[in-house]
Design brief:
Layout: H1 4-11, E1 21-25, H2 29-40, H3 45-59, E2 79-85, E3 97-103, H4 109-119, E4 124-126, H5 127-136, H6 147-158, E5 169-170, E6 181-182, E7 202-208, E8 214-220, E9 241-244, E10 248-254, H7 256-259, H8 264-273, H9 278-292, E11 298-304, E12 309-313, E13 321-328, E14 335-340
Parallel strand pairs: 3-4
Antiparallel strand pairs: 1-7, 1-13, 2-3, 2-8, 5-6, 7-8, 9-10, 10-11, 11-12, 13-14
Helix pairs in contact: 2-3, 3-4, 8-9
C-alpha cells in the first residue's frame, strides 16, 4: 500500500515542491522573511526580490552586503546589484534587467537597479554616473563608510596591503602597497591566494509566485580590498543571477571574478529548461567552474517553476557545507537548508 509520503516522493522524486517560493543564499533569514511577506500580501516577485535584498542591505548582512563593508584599495565601499524580471510575453516588454556596479554614496543599490530597469532602456549603469542617476531619481546620497570599514582598511594598510588582487606589477604586490606600475614582462601567476570562506560576498535571491512567474536579484559590496572600479559577477545577468519564467531561476555567490567567466546562473536555468532537476543543474554549473578552477570558492542556488529547488557548492578546507534559506507555502516561515559541497 502506498503511503501519502511515498506517493509524494514518486510524483516529486527530486524533493520539496511548493509555490510560491523564496530562496536565497546564506542564512539571511530576515531577508527571506521580508521577501516572503511581500508574496503573502499579494505583491509581485519583483517587489519580493527588491524588498528581500533591501533588508539585507539595511542589515549589512555578514558585512558583505550593503554599506560599511569590503572597502576597496582606496578605503571606499562601493555597491553592485541586479534585479531581473523573468516574465516573458510577446505582447509586453519583459525579460528585463536593471543593474548597477561600482555604485557610490547610495545605500539602496537594489532599488537603484530596479530604477535602471524601469526608468531607462538600459541594463547596467556604473560608477559615478550610476550614483548621479540615483540621486536624480530621488535616492538619498549618504556616506557608505563606517568605523568598521575604516578599521578594516587601516589594518590592511598596516599589513602592507595584504592580500590584494594585483599581479605583474612593481613594487612586488605580495610584499608592498602601491601605487603600482606595470612590469615589463608578464609571468604566470603562481601567487598563493588565501580564500576567505567568511566573505560571503552576496545575497542572491529567487522569488516565484503561485503562477510560476520568476524574478531574481543580487546585492553585494564586492570583494574586500578590490582594485577600485572592479565589477564582480553579481550585477552581470547570467553570472550573478538569472530568471526565466519558462524555466526557473538561479543565483550565485562566491569568487565573482572566476564565476562570471562561466555564467553559472544562466547555465543552471538552461539545464532546468532541458529537464534537469534544480539540484543537478546547480551541481553541473559548479562542476563546470570547478573543472577550470578547482580551488574557487562559490555556490549556486536553483529553483524551477514547479517549486523544486536545490543548491551546490565547491568543497574547500573549512567549507564543506553551504547554507541557504527557503520559504514556501508548506513551511510558511524561513527555513535554513544546507547542502554538502563536492
Amino acid at each position: 500500500m502506498f503511503t501519502p509520503l511515498l506517493i509524494y516522493m514518486l510524483l516529486f522524486p527530486f524533493g520539496h515542491a511548493s509555490l510560491p517560493l523564496v530562496i536565497n543564499t546564506w542564512p539571511f533569514k530576515d531577508a527571506t522573511a521580508a521577501a516572503w511577506s511581500v508574496l503573502q500580501s499579494g505583491g509581485s516577485v519583483l517587489d519580493a526580490v527588491e524588498k528581500g535584498c533591501a533588508r539585507c542591505q539595511a542589515d549589512q548582512c555578514d558585512g558583505s552586503v550593503g554599506y560599511g563593508g569590503s572597502p576597496d584599495e582606496a578605503g571606499e565601499t562601493t555597491l553592485d546589484a541586479m534585479i531581473m524580471n523573468g516574465v516573458f510575453s510577446v505582447s509586453s516588454d519583459k525579460m528585463e534587467v536593471g543593474a548597477v556596479a561600482d555604485l557610490r554614496r547610495i545605500k539602496n543599490a537594489i532599488g537603484v537597479a530596479r530604477a535602471v530597469m524601469e526608468r531607462t532602456d538600459h541594463t547596467l549603469l556604473v560608477g559615478e554616473s550610476a550614483s548621479v542617476f540615483a540621486e536624480n531619481m530621488g535616492f538619498v546620497a549618504e556616506d557608505l563608510t563606517t568605523n568598521k570599514s575604516m578599521n578594516i582598511f587601516s589594518q590592511w594598510l598596516k599589513g602592507n596591503c595584504q592580500p590584494n588582487y594585483r599581479k605583474n606589477v612593481f613594487p612586488d604586490p605580495s610584499k608592498f602597497c602601491g601605487p603600482y606600475k606595470p612590469r615589463a614582462t608578464l609571468t604566470p601567476s603562481r601567487r598563493a591566494r588565501r580564500t576567505d570562506i567568511h566573505s560571503h560576498d552576496t545575497i542572491g535571491m529567487i522569488a516565484i509566485d503561485e503562477d510560476g512567474q520568476v524574478a531574481a536579484g543580487t546585492s553585494t559590496n564586492g570583494a574586500n580590498h578590490k582594485v577600485p572600479g572592479r565589477v564582480g559577477d553579481s550585477p552581470i545577468p547570467g553570472a550573478g543571477a538569472y530568471a526565466d519564467s519558462s524555466a526557473g531561476g538561479a543565483a550565485a555567490t562566491g569568487n565573482g571574478d572566476v564565476m562570471m567567466r562561466l555564467l553559472p546562473s544562466y547555465l543552471a536555468v538552461e539545464l532546468m529548461r532541458a529537464g534537469a532537476d534544480p539540484s543537478a543543474a546547480c551541481k553541473t554549473a559548479i562542476f563546470r567552474i570547478k573543472r577550470h578552477y578547482p580551488e574557487f570558492f562559490g555556490a549556486v542556488i536553483c529553483a524551477n517553476t514547479t517549486g523544486h529547488y536545490g543548491a551546490a557548492c565547491n568543497k574547500l578546507p573549512g567549507f564543506s557545507q553551504f547554507h541557504y534559506m527557503v520559504s514556501d507555502s508548506q513551511s510558511n516561515t524561513p527555513l535554513l537548508k544546507s547542502v554538502d559541497c563536492f
